[in-house]
Inverse folding.
């Protein structure tokens, strides 16, 4: 087990500086344009692929860094550049993790490379879990996968919503119900290969923020995928379902639900790190502005009312990063989240990003309210962090349940 450290080693610092350079030179200058266009920034993703940032190798290297600091450092730098573009770059990674975590070696080897493509032919992947009637309440999912034994195929029907890269992805990972009696324990994940008939993009959403990231419905109409597309394989699924049925019979329903929540815990610090990146970006703009903007014959930071806000902003950002780093270190080293530390990090970092970006607008005054300055966009972008991968309310629920052991509603 790696010791917890707050100091990046030389290699990590090199990666951080390299990512920072890409974020400053390539992502940040393109941010306003793609925010206005509300389209996937393909040229920026291609550029990221060329230098190796958009690749499975890079993502895996950060993911398996034993200190746990690889992913948070990468996310913070890329999202410091711009949240919408960064999500377009890392969105595939979120789907790939679904396959890395649940797939067989063969499935990983077959599908993950097709999620990324290569620098000359970049591809994307989408992870489709949320539905119109199943957001926070994942157990209400209706998309159904039925096994056709004669053909060794799964037939999937349903509508997914809010899917990042949904409909434009080469590979979709779709979560569906295989046993409706088991709630979220009756779900399984499937690969939907490129160009599979029956999968189509529904509505593309026009959003408040992260507008460079494509978000859309995905409609599954009698989508047939080979048996080999069930992540983890049929044997493992049958064993898992049998165990869940046993536990449900023994009255362990609530425990089952909590166990499902615990799995989400591990990915939440990564979202916290994205929020830290956006918050830090807005804070830096505000600090610089406060030191150069003069009113009443002196820089506005000369006023305690402004200076204290900046002190508060920086303190909250550093505290958020520490929570994120702690949770990331725990996750990679298999330390159980006995106080829902993953949720804590996401809750605190995402609320911090919303607060800090709003304070940045205030410090920039009228300029902060315009699209001439980036803090207005950063504030719009920051609102997503308290919503996706579990809203702030759901994080509080998870923390309270974990601390109390009670089924708090
Ligand atoms: C831009 C964007 C990208 C996304 N990307 C993806 C993706 O790639 N794949 C994917 O599967 N999903 C994705 N999502 C979906 C996201 O995870 C959901 O929006 C989120 O889980 C919330 O679900 P909901 O929108 O249905 O809100 P609801 O669950 O309807 O919640 C509405 C409000 O009620 C509150 N609430 C609900 N239940 C409780 C409770 N028990 N206690 C207290 N408050 C409660 C919530 O906190 C929230 O404030 C994305 C969403 C957005 C906006």
């Amino acid at each position: 087990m790696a010791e917890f450290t707050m100091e990046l080693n030389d290699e990590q610092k090199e990666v951080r500086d390299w990512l920072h350079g890409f974020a400053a030179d390539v992502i940040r200058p393109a941010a306003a344009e793609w925010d206005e266009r509300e389209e996937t920034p393909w040229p920026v993703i291609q550029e990221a692929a060329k230098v190796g940032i958009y690749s499975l190798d890079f993502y895996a290297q950060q993911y398996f860094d034993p200190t746990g600091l690889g992913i948070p450092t990468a996310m913070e730098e890329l999202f410091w550049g711009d949240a919408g573009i960064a999500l377009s770059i890392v969105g595939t990674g979120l789907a790939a993790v679904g396959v890395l975590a649940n797939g067989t070696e063969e499935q990983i080897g077959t599908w993950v490379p097709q999620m990324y493509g290569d620098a000359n032919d970049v591809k994307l992947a989408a992870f489709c879990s949320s539905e119109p009637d199943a957001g926070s309440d994942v157990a209400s999912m209706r998309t159904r996968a039925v096994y056709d034994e004669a053909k060794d195929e799964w037939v999937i029907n349903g509508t997914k919503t809010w899917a990042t890269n949904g409909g434009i992805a080469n590979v979709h990972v779709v979560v569906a119900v295989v046993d409706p009696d088991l709630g979220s324990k009756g779900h399984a994940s499937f690969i939907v290969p490129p160009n599979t008939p029956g999968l189509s993009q529904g509505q593309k959403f026009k959003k408040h923020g992260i507008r460079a990231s494509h978000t859309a419905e995905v409609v599954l109409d009698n989508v047939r995928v080979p048996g080999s597309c069930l992540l983890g394989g049929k044997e493992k699924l049958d064993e898992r379902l049998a165990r869940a049925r046993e536990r449900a019979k023994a009255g362990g329903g609530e425990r089952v639900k909590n166990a499902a929540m615990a799995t989400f815990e591990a990915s939440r610090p990564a979202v916290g790190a994205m929020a830290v990146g956006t918050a830090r970006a807005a804070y830096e703009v505000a600090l610089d502005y406060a030191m150069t903007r003069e009113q009443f014959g002196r820089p506005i930071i000369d006023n305690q009312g402004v200076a204290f806000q900046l002190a508060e902003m920086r303190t909250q950002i550093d505290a958020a990063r520490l929570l994120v780093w702690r949770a990331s270190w725990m996750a990679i080293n298999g330390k159980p989240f006995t106080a829902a530390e993953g949720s804590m990090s996401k809750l605190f970092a995402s609320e911090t990003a919303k607060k800090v970006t709003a304070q940045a607008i205030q410090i920039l005054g009228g300029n902060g309210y315009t699209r001439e300055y980036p803090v207005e966009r950063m504030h719009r972008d920051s609102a997503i962090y308290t919503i996706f991968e579990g809203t702030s309310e759901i994080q509080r629920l998870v923390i309270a349940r974990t601390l109390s052991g009670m089924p708090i509603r």
